[in-house]
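Hey, resending since the last one bounced:
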Amino acid sequence: MSELIDVVMQELAQLGWQGFQAVNGRIPEAESPAPNWAPGPLLKSRQRTKPPLGWPRQTDSLCPRCVIETRTAILEGRRDLADLVDGHVGEIKAWIVEEDGSSSSAKPVRNTGSSKMSFRLILSSAG
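The structure tokens again:
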């Protein structure tokens, strides 16, 4: 009996989806909303890019030390909250790599004790 219910539900869902697509295809496309916080109108799903999958791949990440230092400086009043909103505090590129069957992220981290940029590798297991 439950198999029959499953088949009926699948068919109803398929019919509902086809009906939705038919109606959606006949409605003229509206302009994308442009929220105040966004630099422009939001992208339609077909306009968005998808990140590459598999490894190794590059991604955006945050320097953990920089984030903690910035948060502390804001709470102590040494930095303005707008630095987080308008700036890209602590943003770094990171690589997601596979090692021994699990994924890890390798991040270059800014040495905040020096005026030069020196990098060290941070590995954190994600799998």
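The helical segments are 2-26, 64-75, 82-86.

Sorry for the duplicate.
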